[in-house]
Amino acid sequence: MRNVEFHNGNTMPQIGLGVFRVEDGEECKNAVKHAIVSGYRSIDTAMIYKNEKSVGEGIKEGMKEAGIDRSDLFITSKLWFDDFGRGNVEKAYDTSLENLDLDYLDLYLVHWPGTDEELMIQTWQEMEHLYNNERVENIGVSNFTIQHLERLLQRTDVKPVINQVEYHPYLVQNDLKLFLESRKIIMESWSPLMNAKVLNDETINEIASETGKSPAQVVIRWNIENGLVTIPKSVTPERIEENIDVFDFSLSDAQVNRINLLNRNERNGSDPATFNGKK
């Protein structure tokens, strides 16, 4: 498994398992367990997914079966709007640890910036407190735009190590990517397969034929070639295995550019500029 390095010197696997919209229960536990046994070392969940307990069970069973230690894994969870603000962040972090049955997280993210700048800044300052007290290995953000990041960086001390955003061939976000690169903040993609929507794309399928790989593997490899961390979601054992089997081939610059040109600025999720946690 290839790792990326954060600006603080810590590292993270470039591919992980995402569990967004996977219900708490056996399916979630088994997906996490199978991922770990199949070679995944990064698992990404969030409080609002309401599946941290099953993720924790899958981690325990997966470690046992794979014969690895907690230190071999990289576990991420996220802070939801309900726990923004002073005095709330550490409690929420402790709740996630309790749900996951872990002593620490490798990465804790502010899930969305929200529409209240002061509240967002206060929240990040509480995240800094967790990090400075060595309760969490790394802190980062999710769904932050350039504007959100500029405000955050102007008013806080600890720079996020990562920004997890919606990113797929129909939403390339090149301006954001260049901004993050200039600040040495890693870009991470959620919904890299756009809920399988991009897998029917003609260009993706042409490149799959050219490389002898599946459309999903082509898109995941495109993420890798562009320097992103990515967390494709699946609960199907065969697809979990397929999604990580992307290190035995590469895409040419021309193939990467053909995929880049598919951009439509099309979002599958909410707009970070206006989303505040309410539907």
From TrEMBL:
<keyword id="KW-0521">NADP</keyword>
<keyword id="KW-0560">Oxidoreductase</keyword>
<dbReference type="GO" id="GO:0016616">
    <property type="term" value="F:oxidoreductase activity, acting on the CH-OH group of donors, NAD or NADP as acceptor"/>
</dbReference>
<dbReference type="InterPro" id="IPR036812">
    <property type="entry name" value="NAD(P)_OxRdtase_dom_sf"/>
</dbReference>
<feature type="binding site">
    <location>
        <position position="111"/>
    </location>
    <ligand>
        <name>substrate</name>
    </ligand>
</feature>
<protein>
    <submittedName>
        <fullName>Aldo/keto reductase</fullName>
    </submittedName>
</protein>
<dbReference type="Pfam" id="PF00248">
    <property type="entry name" value="Aldo_ket_red"/>
</dbReference>
<feature type="active site" description="Proton donor">
    <location>
        <position position="49"/>
    </location>
</feature>
<dbReference type="InterPro" id="IPR020471">
    <property type="entry name" value="AKR"/>
</dbReference>
<dbReference type="InterPro" id="IPR023210">
    <property type="entry name" value="NADP_OxRdtase_dom"/>
</dbReference>
<dbReference type="InterPro" id="IPR018170">
    <property type="entry name" value="Aldo/ket_reductase_CS"/>
</dbReference>
<feature type="site" description="Lowers pKa of active site Tyr">
    <location>
        <position position="78"/>
    </location>
</feature>
<comment type="similarity">
    <text>Belongs to the aldo/keto reductase family.</text>
</comment>
<feature type="domain" description="NADP-dependent oxidoreductase">
    <location>
        <begin position="15"/>
        <end position="261"/>
    </location>
</feature>
